[in-house]
Amino acid sequence: MSVSLVKGQRISLEKGSGDALTQVRMGLGWDAVKKKGFFGARDQEIDLDATCVLFADGQVADVIYFGKLTSDDGSIRHSGDNLTGAGDGDDETIGVDLGRVPPHVTALVFTVNSFSGQTFDVVANAFCRLVDETTGQELARYELTGGGSHTAMVMARIYRQGDGWKLNAIGEPAAGRTVQDMLPAVAAHA
Predict the structure, then answer these.
(1) C-alpha dist (Å) from residue 157 to 45, 79, 119
(2) In angstroms, what is the C-alpha Rg of the chain?
(3) Where exactly are the structural domains of the chain?
(4) What local confidence, expressed as pLDDT, does residue 65 receive?
(5) Averaged confidence pLDDT in the chain
(6) What is the pTM of this model?
């Protein structure tokens, strides 16, 4: 059963059986808002990018995005760049093998940014979701509703707590066309 997350909500990443999750996938999906023109409505192409920033003791340890598809240790993999949001379902995904994330990594922060610089006012049906890769079950979903004049969002943070992992839905608007532009906002959630 999926949980619809709200900004600031925290959930445990533990299966109903009490077992810890081992493989998760963060999915990002979106559609372009129809643009009205002289010859009718047409889709605008929107290039959103999903990114995962790995932190170790508050410092950036690695960044996984369309330009670097695999973490240095191989525990995190990006599906590749979707330039338009075309298609149904997840347009970009980031798979995480939580058991292989190095012990010094304390948090994973997931972001989304508009590489083409369009604001979220022209993005429709945008969502971020967490899926248990071993079962295919959607665990949590965060809807990017309401648009906004921002070009990026700090979506969620997965962080270590004891021997397990927890998820914090952040949903904080930010500015930037790239994750490098967003690093000050992202680092606040390390």
Answers:
(1) 28, 19, 22
(2) 16
(3) 3-187
(4) 94
(5) 81
(6) 0.84
Report yes or no: 42 and 35 within 8 Å, Cβ to Cβ.
yes
CATH class label, 3-187: mainly beta
Strands (E), the chain: 3-4, 10-12, 23-32, 34-37, 40-43, 48-56, 59-64, 76-78, 92-97, 107-114, 123-132, 138-143, 152-161, 164-174
For residue 105, the one-letter residue type is V
Percent of the chain's residues with pLDDT above 70: 77
Q: Is 80 left (phi over 0), alpha (psi -120 to 50) or beta?
A: left
Tell whether the model's pLDDT for residue 6 goes beyond 80.
no
Decide: 170 and 141 in contact? Cβ < 8 Å.
Answer: no
For residue 49, give every residue at least 6 positions away whose Cβ sits within 8 Å of its Cβ, in sequence order, or none. 65, 66, 81, 92, 112, 113, 114, 115, 178, 179
- Structure-block tokens of residue 50: 């999903």
The arithmetic mean of pLDDT across residues 141-152, rounded, is 73
Average pLDDT of 118-135? 81
Q: Is 97 exposed, middle or buried (0-12, 13-18, 19+ CB in 10 A)?
A: middle
The C-alpha atoms of residue 44 and residue 83 are separated, in whole angstroms, by 11
* Residue 116, pLDDT score: 77
**What is the Cα–Cα distance from 154 to 107, expressed in whole angstroms?**
13
CA separation for the pair 71, 68 (Å, rounded): 7
In angstroms, the CA 24 to CA 4 distance is 17
